[in-house]
Design goal:
Elements (H helix, E strand, L loop, with lengths): L1 H20 L1 H4 L3 H35 L18 H17 L2 H30 L1 H9 L20 H29 L5 H35 L1
């Protein structure tokens, strides 16, 4: 756990330093900025998808494995064996696409996978020793990282509850605050002024997407609760 947090902290620090020192090469140029605005919208939605996946995975794990001795195989763990890591990857890609040139996201993804795939294999070795054939069967039926279909989209495999959202709310708010600050800096460095209309458009699309996702999950949870109550 400490090792993973240390790696994440280093990546964040290194990325921040690179953005400050080499922003002229990382930020889109004035002639490119308008095209990258729409890529940025996709990036912000990816950030939300990543947090959605992390919220569902963290909530399911805390509820089904409070003592750390139970193998969780339901919820988002039916899509991928590592939903938390995948969610973090989507967040990183989303931030890269929202703020920088597209190739920055590719560099981030390559570096991320080079670091975390060995970490995942190490953790799988521990789980295999702990759960034996049960974990082996689980590995045979669920992909290690990338799900065959559906990732962060509203589905029955990704239940979301209000109390689960609280655990990631501060991180989500900090991420979008950082994105907003960098977008303001980008506008000043590229255009010399802030394009408020584009900022409002990006934030509005992200907010609408988050609201739709929450409503869909809320309705599914209510429907599931009503079915249980009828039995």
């Amino acid at each position: 756990m400490k090792k993973r947090i240390g790696i994440q902290g280093f990546l964040i620090f290194a990325s921040t330093c690179a953005a400050v020192l080499f922003y002229k090469y990382l930020f889109p140029s004035p002639c490119e900025k308008w095209a990258y605005d729409y890529i940025g919208i996709i990036g912000m939605i990816l950030v939300l998808k990543g947090y959605l996946l992390r919220i569902a995975a963290r909530g399911a794990k805390s509820e089904m494995n409070p003592d750390g001795l139970t193998l969780v195989v339901s919820g988002p763990y039916q899509l991928t064996r590592n939903p938390m890591y995948l969610g973090t990857l989507l967040i990183g890609l989303g931030v890269s696409f929202a703020l920088f040139k597209w190739w920055v996201g590719c560099v981030f993804a390559a570096a991320y996978l080079m670091i975390y795939i060995p970490q995942i294999k190490s953790e799988e070795k521990v789980l295999s020793e702990r759960f034996g054939e049960v974990f082996g069967d689980y590995c045979n039926s669920v992909p290690r990282f990338f799900p065959v279909c559906g990732c962060g989209m509203p589905s029955a495999n990704l239940p979301i509850r209000p109390d689960w959202i609280k655990k990631e709310a501060s991180s989500l708010a900090a991420t979008f605050a950082a994105i907003l600050l960098v977008l303001l800096w980008q506008d000043f460095s590229v255009f010399g002024y802030v394009r408020y209309k584009m900022l409002v458009l990006k934030l509005s699309i992200a907010a609408v997407y988050a609201l739709v996702v929450y409503i869909l999950h809320y309705e599914k949870n209510n429907a599931a609760g009503n079915r249980k109550g009828c039995c």
